Structure formats: structure tokens, C-alpha cells
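Practice set, problem 2.
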Amino acid sequence: MRVIFTILATFVLTLNSVSAALTNNLIITVAKIDHDRILRLAAKALQLTPPAITDHIATNSAGGPHDFFSQADYAWPNPTNKTGLPYIGRDGESNPNVFTYHRMAMRNMKDAVAALAAAYAITGDDKYAHKAAQFINVFFLDPKTRMNPNLQYAQAVLGTSTGEPYGIIDTLHLAELAVAVPFLEKSPGFDPAVDQGLKQWFTDYTHWIITSKPGIKEMTNPNNHSIACFVQLAAFAKYTGDQKVLDICRTRFKDVLFPGQMTNNGSFPRELKRTKPFGYSIFQADNLSILCVLLSTPDDDLWEFTLPDVRTPRNAVDFIYPYLLDKNKWLADGRGKDVMHWNHWPARQPCLLFAYAEFGDPKYFKLWKKLNPDPADLEIRRNMAVTQPLLWIASPSDIPILPVK
């Protein structure tokens, strides 16, 4: 029996060593693939003036100058107004005239910090960390420019509501910020007070989500919004070290989100019924894989989580893969064409990279490398929570990831 145990233990250790070697090779490979792109985006970030939501006052907001504000994208002026409602919904059709300044300021800030963190990760150059701290301080901490840690006034419908629970999806991009900052923490150019201040901001925002009526409603939303909400909660909790919230996220993933939304073939029926079924299906596959990355531990790999009917998270990637490879197959299989932005999908979807990192199937990585990492379409960019994939597969302990020249 001891001999068998020893053999099994040796086998497991060998597998772990092989897996670690594969992961290290992938980190180096991705760092080399993205090297020029990272440094180009970081160079642009170094020249940017850090944005803040106070740069653009939202005159239609029911909140104050430090409250994030956005308007519902699918709400359009009612041409007749016979119903008494000044705006009506047109699912999947984004109104180009809604207020988006706060959303864009947030996304530009996050993209800049992520690029700077990735540049620091591959070079170890403190100038990137120093600039990243400036972005964070202006957006979250400076009393004159900071954003309040709530989304009470997001996705408002003028004349109907001052904010909607589904507006919480507007902070999805902050998940990558929480992943990026740990890469900056060991740099002397990154002020520890900024780090602690941001941790407190995320702690306060997490508390608002899990205790407020809008947050609770979004957490229990039966479609893509709840998965996107838990991507945020998981990323914030991992950064702040909130094990209680992480446990809540893992339980909800296993008991509600995954079994309640993905069917046996890996598709998401609620998303397939939307007017942009392709984009929403990609969005779900990406965010489900992001949750697997954020919430997995050495003792609990969510990629391997299997329901009694043998559904696993990998099914979501395998469902969308052939359509990412050839979008025309989506139509050939009788699925609907997206009402908007059809021509700009797919981009370099993170689910492909994360599935390759987990399962080692080269087809995922081969396709991931071919796809566009920086789509110009703002709606496509809005639906991609991951802009610097290196930060999601590497560890801060790897810095500098590439040899210093």
C-alpha cells in the first residue's frame, strides 16, 4: 500500500511539475507576443493626463459630481410619446446620443493602468508603476476628482429612472484593474498609500454591491449580468483579500450561475434569444472563463467542476470555438445575425487563452494568436474585460517576466 501511495504521489508531483513548466512557457510566450503592443500602449499611457469623472459633469444625473452616471444604451427617444414615456427600449441597439463620458473615462483609466502594469511586468521599470499610481489617485482617491464607490446612477432612463441595477455592468472593466495592481505593488514607484486607498475603495464598492437593492438585484439577475457582476466581486475580493466574498462567489458559481445559465451543449439560451446572440454568447464564454481563473485554487479547480449531467465550464468554450474560427458557421447553423456590431466580432477572446492554459489544446492558442487584440469598435471593446491577458496568466512574483536588456 505504501508503495502504491508513493507511486501515486510521485505521479501527481510529476504532473504538477509538467503543468508548471507549461504555464511558465506560456507566460514567456505571451509576453513575447505582446511585448511591442504592451510597450506601445504603455508609452501612450505615460503621456496621458489621468482622467476623472469630474472632468465631465452629467447634467441629467440625480447624483452629485462625484457620482458615476450613464444612460441606458438601448433606450431611445419615444417618437410619439403616446405612452407618456419619453424613452422606449430597443434591445441590442445602442443609442449613440446617450451620456458616455464617465464610462469612457473609467475605461481609458483602466486600459492605461493595465498597460502600465503589463509594461512593468515585462521590464521592471519603475516609471510605469509611478504613472499608474497617478491614474489611480486621480480617479479613486483625490477628494477633488474621486468617484464615489457606488453605481446608484448608472444606466438611467431619463424621465423614468435615475439609475438601473443593470448599470453595475458598467464597472466590469475594473475587474482587470484589480488584477493589474498587484503587479505594481513591489515597485518603489508605486505609493503604498495609493494601494491601500484603492483596496479600501474596492472594499466599499463591494459592500455596496452585496448590500444595496440594485446590487442584490444584479447579483440575482438570471442572464449575463449576474455573471459579469460576480466577475467584479471575485476580482475585487481577490485583490483585497476578502475570503468571505470569494467563498460566496465560488458557491454562487457552482450552485446558481453555471448550472442556471449554460445548457448541455455549452450555449446560453437566454443570450441566444437576444438581438445580438453572437456577441452575447462570446461575452458569456469569456466571463465564465474569467470566473474560473479568478476563483480556482490548487484544491478547487473550477474548470474541472462537473455537474451531475456532466456539464463543465469547458463546454462554453467548445460551443463558441467553431464560431470564433468561422463566423459564417453561426449563420449556417441557423443562428441569428447580431442587429449591431456583427462585422467586428470576434476579437482576441480571453476564453481561448484561458482554456489553452488549463487544457493544453493547441487549437485554442492557435486561434487566439490570430485574432485582433485591439478592436477599434468601442462596443466590442466595452464587452472585453481583459485587455492585457499577460496579467491574468502570470504572477507578480514573475517580474520582470522578460530578461532586462
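Problem 2, part (b): a different protein.
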Amino acid sequence: MIEVYREITPLTQYDCFTVFTRKKKTFDFPLHNHAEFELNLILGGKGVKRIVGDHTEVIEDAELVLVGNNLPHGWFTHQYSWEEGMPEVHEITLQFHRDLFDDKLLRRNQLFFIRSLLEKAVRGISFSKDTIERIVPRLMTLNQKSGFDSILELMSILHDLSISRNMRVLSNSTFTDENINFNSRRIEKVFAYMRDNYDKEISLEGVAKLAGMTEVSFSRFIKKRTGKTFIESLNEIRLGHTSRSLIDTTNTISEIAYKCGFNNLSYFNRIFKNKNGCTPKEFRENYAGTRTFV
């Protein structure tokens, strides 16, 4: 098993949020999680590797990511190397409690988009370059505000992020044990079946029958509702379980693949790399050993 570092953040129970700025040349913080939500801005860190849940990616010069509570994450050296005369990496980290926004409050119509943002953040969200350019000046001046003005600005920033275009959800829903509402009883019945039986053989014929549809009709229906084919949806569920097993167990990669429903190891390796940007072996190594943090 691989232990993910549990961070105790400086945010107290009496604070609404905390924001701190750092300029760094070195990266020495391990993969970790914490109970608080975190909005992390990194400027000048091209070549750094980011891990959020089971998602791995090498970042560009500027990136902005919102990480939900208890989701493993970290930024690591990888291809980044500071040299004399280079500007240091500039990082701004904003952390806030999950219960800063009460569930009843979030159900109000005017806060629909923020509620949706926080729900997606459970899997981690990466924002587009255009969004970063708009938000950077506000994050840089947020620590100059105080009291009620600072809370209003935080809510305004979160609202603007919630309605921004081209945001990307990073981690697999199965990895984070998230149940997605597709507003369709048929689809949700099928997904519940696939989540419960991912380690067994599941056929298009079987799930179509479960949904009370022909195979052709169901194939069109699931693609329209989810944006993914039946096979893509099933593989995503299985990949989430394989990623978790790579972290939580010492089983071999082939054992994990077969236990999670993949009967062809080369096929498993190929789709795992396509989804996560690394091989299962590299993924496990990302979570193990000494790593460095921006």
C-alpha cells in the first residue's frame, strides 16, 4: 500500500478562508490531501508534473486548479529545472472549508453554478488559459482585502470560475467514489449495475436489456446522455478501480487488471495510458517514493 500524506492546513475553524503566496525554486512537498478545498495558481512552472486523483499531466507556464476535499494531489519537479537568472515559480494557494457554503444555501437558484463547481471539484478542475488571465489579478490582490469584503471577493471569484468556459474535470469518478446524476433512471440503473459488477463480464446486450431497449437504441441513448459509448463508460469505471488498487494494494499490475474486469493485459495497458497519460507502472511510481511539491 502507498500512504498519501495527510496535510494539516493553517486554516482554523474560525477562518472562512486563507490565502498565501510563495516564490520557489525547489519542490519538496509530498503527494497529499486535506479536508479543505484548495484553489491553486502556479505561474512559471512549465514542465512541472501535476497529480490530482488518478490524473497525471505536465503543466504549462500558467495553471489554475480547484481541488476538492480529501482528493490526493501534488505538483512535482519532473521536467522543471530552475537555473540562475530565471524567475522563481510564483504560487498562490487559497484554501476554504467545505462547509463555508451550507448545503441549504447552495440549493438556492442563485448559487446553482457555485454548487455545480464544488461538486465537480471533488474530482479536481483545471481552468483554461483565458480564465486564468482574468482571475490572476484578483487572486494577487485578494490578500489586500479583509473582513466582509474579502468574503464577497472570494464568492465572486468562485462564481466567475463556475461559469467559465472550457474547464476540465480531471480525476475519474470511480476513483473518487462519486455518483453522477444523469437525470435518467435508465442510465443510472445501468451505471449502478456496472459499478456493482465491474469485475465481471458485462455485455452491451445485457445492459441494453436492463434498460429495456434494443442494443442499437441503447448505444445511441448512452452516447447522447453521457457523451461516451457503453465501452468507454464501462472502461472508465474499471480504470477508476484499477487506479485505486494500484495505490491501495501491493498486487501486481496483471492481478489488478484481471480483478477489475480486464481480461487482456495489453488492452488494459493501452487504455490506461490513453486515459492517464502514463503506464500503470509509472502511475504507481508517481504515488510512491519521494516527490517534490511546487
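Answer key, part (b): Residues 185-287 form a domain with the Arc Repressor Mutant, subunit A fold (CATH 1.10.10.60). Residues 290-294 have pLDDT under 50 and may be disordered.
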